[in-house]
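Researcher: I'd like a candidate sequence for this fold, 470 residues long. If you have to choose between options at a position, lean toward the conservative one.
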């Protein structure tokens, strides 16, 4: 998606753009699987910060985004099912409504605790929005390694302990009182993006702030329709596409990028923009990825079904160990996100689709081992059904996708989750020209400002602004 976004922007600025794609189609991780009249997104299923793609539509053509795709807010934003039987529905883009829902589910005062944390996430957003999301990575990125989360003043005996660096788990323990439901809610935002809440900076509170402030959106026909729309915009701007053409290396002359070598030969260029993943390295620590189960369901979507349901882990500590500790067993009942869109275009009449997703280790697990993927998928479905979703008995068929599939199709090392940049994460976010080769820019999930549909769109905008008109 970053390549499509950058191509459409640069072609609009007058450049002659050629896109080389290793696969047979466009869109990268925003893929699609079709069978027997059923259709599924194989990558992200929901959109946050649609303003990124509204800006793309505005800057590259006359039609606004809403004329290119059918965009609708998801309401309620999500339903959360907890191990103790608590059933919580959160409204979309309503901070006050979220607080009321939490009070009703967890007791009076729960909403105030949560909203205080999210308000601190707003402070993080205001401090980092421009330098971390909208501007090129500075020559000295060390200021971004500081976490702007406003740690509350310590009282009592706590003042005698060293302050140290707060993690998201510290926020849950110290500001949410360790409440298991609120903790699970906060940790799920990190886990969904491949962050370990025990090590993620407290500034990760920006994730629930963004979601609850700017809303969550669905594209009719699935998010693949968004990739279709940006691809059409590229075609209108006469971008040339070369599919089944794998990038091999950047060609340099006199210390400057002057083209690329591909599986189909060399291509000369004045500027090279690379949206490939970071090089794979030997890893001895688990790398988070995703296991996705595509379910074709018999029968109509039940009335009142929520678009997004999260069934939280039965044993959160065991789940974190299984994902982030080398050699630890995978959780029997992991956190499972279930997407069930009310979208007739995705299935035959009288049926329904469901997409189940769980964060799981990508590195350190052999997902190609016979039966490994199906065993974990069985756990995911059983956990969802134990919470009352009733999916297994209605399943016509299923397809299980693991990090091994992600790696094969997208080139992401180990099939890892492309993570968003977070202030305080001390990650190495790339935005070129690189020092070794001026004229070579990096975009996409492995570049500044990190992974996710919104951020890869931002990386394309940053690169286009750096390159400028032809």
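Model: Candidate sequence:
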């Amino acid at each position: 998606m970053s390549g499509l976004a950058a191509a459409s922007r640069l072609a609009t600025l007058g450049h002659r753009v050629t896109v080389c794609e290793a696969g047979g189609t466009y869109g990268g991780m925003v893929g699609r699987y079709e069978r027997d009249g059923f259709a599924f997104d194989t990558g992200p299923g929901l959109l946050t910060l649609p303003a990124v793609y509204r800006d793309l539509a505005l800057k590259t053509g006359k039609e606004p985004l809403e004329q290119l795709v059918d965009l609708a807010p998801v309401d309620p934003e999500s339903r959360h099912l907890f191990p103790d039987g608590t059933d919580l529905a959160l409204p979309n883009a309503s901070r006050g409504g979220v607080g009321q829902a939490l009070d009703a589910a967890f007791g009076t005062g729960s909403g105030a605790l949560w909203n205080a944390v999210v308000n601190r996430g707003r402070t993080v957003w205001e401090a980092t929005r421009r330098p971390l999301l909208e501007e090129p990575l500075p020559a000295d990125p060390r200021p971004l390694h500081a976490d702007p989360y406003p740690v509350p003043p310590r009282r009592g005996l706590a003042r005698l302990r060293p302050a140290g660096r707060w993690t998201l788990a510290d926020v849950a323990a110290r500001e949410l009182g360790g409440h298991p439901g609120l903790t699970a809610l906060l940790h799920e935002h990190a886990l969904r993006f491949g962050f370990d809440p025990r090590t993620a900076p407290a500034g990760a509170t920006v994730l629930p702030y963004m979601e609850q402030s700017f809303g969550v959106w669905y594209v009719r026909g699935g998010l693949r329709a968004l990739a279709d729309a940006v691809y059409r915009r590229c075609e209108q701007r006469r971008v040339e596409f070369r599919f089944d053409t794998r990038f091999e290396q950047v060609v340099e002359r006199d210390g400057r990028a002057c083209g690329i070598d591909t599986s189909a030969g060399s291509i000369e260029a004045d500027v090279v923009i690379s949206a490939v993943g970071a090089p794979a390295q030997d890893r001895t620590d688990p790398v988070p990825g995703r296991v996705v189960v595509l379910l074709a369901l018999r029968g109509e979507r039940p009335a009142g079904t929520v678009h997004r349901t999260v069934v939280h882990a039965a044993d959160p500590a065991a789940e974190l160990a299984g994902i982030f500790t080398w050699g630890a067993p995978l959780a029997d009942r992991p956190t499972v996100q279930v997407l069930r869109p009310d979208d007739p275009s995705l299935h035959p009449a009288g049926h329904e689709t469901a997409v189940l997703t769980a964060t799981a280790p990508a590195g350190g697990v052999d997902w190609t081992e016979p039966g490994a993927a199906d065993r974990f998928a069985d756990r995911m479905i059983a956990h969802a059904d134990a919470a009352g979703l009733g999916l297994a008995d209605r399943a016509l068929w299923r397809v299980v996708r693991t990090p091994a599939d992600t790696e094969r199709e997208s080139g992401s090392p180990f099939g890892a989750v492309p993570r968003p940049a977070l202030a305080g994460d001390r990650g190495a976010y790339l935005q070129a020209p690189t020092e070794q080769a001026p004229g070579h820019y990096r975009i996409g999930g492995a570049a500044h400002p990190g992974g996710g549909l919104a951020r890869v769109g931002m990386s394309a905008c940053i690169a286009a602004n750096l390159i400028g008109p032809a």
